[in-house]
Amino acid sequence: MVPAGLAGLAVLTVWALAPMARAAAAGAVAEIAQSKAANPAAATPGPAAKTPQAKPRGKRSGRPLPRFASLRSAEVNVRTGPGVRYPVEWVFKRRSFPIEIVAEFDTWRKVRDWQGTVGWVHRSLLSGRRTVLVTGLVRRLHSKPAAGAETVARLEPGVVAELLQCAKSWCEIQASGHSGWLRKGEFWGARAADGAKK
Question: C-alpha 108: how far from its chain's center?
Fold first, then answer.
């Protein structure tokens, strides 16, 4: 049933996500836990710093880490380590899917998906184009960055959209020809500090 006031609006549904083989997902989660245990200072936020600290950068690319990107190909092998000699742990099967680059080694990038699973992907399979993944409930795409703004479409969980720009707690996105604004907590693929046009 369509809620009152939403009749006639476009409803963008999720494309069927191909199942991802994640036999070692538990191992990836354990790796994150071990990393936090090995460096408790990184896992526990301390008092606010008095001087701004430079954001970590990748040694090969010189770009900030972590950073968001997207998949360039419709099928991307994710490996257990940075090289073709490492086994494929699972396969992404969706072009433009958002990922987060968390580390670099030579031409390989360690990526994390929206569920926190990590693995290694060759940089040629990644794009700097920013996309986001709608999460949670069906979301209202607003005409302006305000809760009371007109609803231009409804987005179902799993919809991938292009990130256009962010302003404070809202981001402008485009999905299937519909442009509008979502709150940052309604999707995965942007940080609270994101504010510039991407």
Answer: 18
State which amino acid sits at residue 3: P
Over the stretch 61-82, which tens digit does the pLDDT of each residue have? 777 899 999 999 999 999 999 9
Chain centroid offset of residue 109 CA: 15
| Run of H or E residues at 91 | strand 88-92
Tens-place pLDDT, residues 104-132: 999 999 999 999 999 999 999 999 999 99
Q: Which tokens sit at 187?
A: 């999707």
**Residue position matching structure tokens 């380590």:** 81
Residue type, 12: L
Task: List the strands of the sheet with 160-167, edge to edge.
Answer: 10-12, 151-155, 139-142, 178-183, 170-175, 160-167, 131-134, 187-188
Share of the chain above pLDDT 70, in %: 70
> Hey, is 32 helix, strand or coil?
helix
Name residue, tokens 């962010």: 166
How many helices, marked H, and strands, marked E, lie in the chain?
2, 15
Q: Tally the residues of the chain.
A: 198
Question: Which of 102, 109, 107, 97 has the alpha carbon at shortest distance from 70?
Answer: 97
